């Protein structure tokens, strides 16, 4: 098994590089390039989510309800990513990546009790804490990179707000991950699809991004009426 993981590493790295190049290029070009990419990702993600719901639910009524809820879930995240400004999208992506990296690093190095072993056996409380800390620090860094000249007292308050917001969004990212893990468990599959070599499906890659985009957009719109 270990040998299989090692031999799979070059494929995973190559796939990740391609995904990063495509996403980064579309974000840099902006306009219809980015909107088209978001739409394609959203449609593929919804198709994978619907497939999981069908496999996970024996009742037709529950299938219809699950697919409808999934459609709304993906649509709200899609709207958020299309409507938000480029800098905000970069910040959201940075936060989600930081959450994943922080959770992986602290979970592997510290270990400890699992959060919900029947849903996601690899997720630990230490990993959640590490993801929250990493996301909080990234959010504070993004805040200071965009802040102008402000009073020291206001900066202290806003730093605390940014730290708390980053930690909260990290919890949402992990919740999105747990939601997909639960669906995959119910459906009896390992990945949402085999579309991306070495990485599973599109839903596997954006499960944490969806709830963060929705909530971040809502907070942004409320702060900028």
Question: Keywords for this structure?
Answer:
cell membrane, disordered N terminus, mainly alpha, 8 helices, transmembrane, phospholipid biosynthesis, PC_trans, lipid metabolism, 225 residues
What does the largest sheet look like?
Answer: none
Q: Roughly how much helix do the residues carry, as a percent range?
A: over 70%
Distance between the termini: 53 Å
Rough outline: globular
Compute the gyration radius: what is it? 18 Å
- Average pLDDT confidence is 85
Number of domains: 1
Strand content bin: under 5%
Secondary-structure element sequence? HHHHHHHH
Number of distinct helices = 8
Which runs of at least 5 residues are low in confidence (pLDDT < 50)?
Answer: 1-6
* Broad structural category: mainly alpha
Number of strands: 0
Keywords: Cell membrane, Lipid biosynthesis, Lipid metabolism, Membrane, Nucleotidyltransferase, Phospholipid biosynthesis, Phospholipid metabolism, Transferase, Transmembrane, Transmembrane helix
EC number: 2.7.7.41
Protein name: Phosphatidate cytidylyltransferase
Membrane topology: Multi-pass membrane protein
Description:
The chain is globular. The chain has helices at 2-29, 31-56, 60-83, 86-110, 125-146, 152-187, 202-206, 209-223. It is an all-alpha fold and 225 residues long. It has one domain. The model is unreliable at 1-6 (pLDDT under 50). The chain is built from eight helices and no strands.
């Amino acid at each position: 098994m270990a040998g299989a993981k090692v031999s799979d590493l070059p494929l995973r790295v190559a796939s990740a590089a391609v995904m990063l190049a495509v996403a980064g290029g579309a974000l840099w070009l902006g306009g219809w390039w980015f909107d088209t990419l978001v739409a394609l990702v959203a449609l593929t993600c919804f198709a994978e989510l619907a497939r999981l719901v069908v496999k996970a639910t024996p009742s037709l009524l529950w299938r219809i309800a699950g697919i409808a809820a999934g459609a709304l879930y993906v649509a709200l995240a899609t709207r958020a990513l299309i409507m938000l400004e480029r800098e905000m999208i970069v910040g959201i992506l940075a936060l989600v990546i930081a959450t994943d990296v922080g959770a992986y690093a602290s979970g592997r190095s510290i270990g400890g009790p699992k959060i919900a072993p029947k849903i996601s056996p690899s997720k630990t409380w230490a990993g959640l804490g590490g993801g929250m800390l990493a996301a909080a620090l990234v959010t504070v860094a993004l805040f200071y990179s965009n802040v102008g000249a402000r009073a020291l007292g206001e900066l202290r308050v806003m730093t605390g707000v940014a730290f708390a917001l980053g930690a909260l969004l990290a919890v949402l990212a992990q919740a999105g991950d747990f939601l997909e893990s639960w669906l995959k468990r119910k459906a009896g599959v390992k990945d949402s699809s085999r579309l991306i070599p070495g990485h599973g499906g599109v839903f596997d890659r954006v499960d944490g991004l969806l709830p963060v985009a929705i909530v971040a957009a809502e907070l942004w719109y409320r702060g900028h009426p």
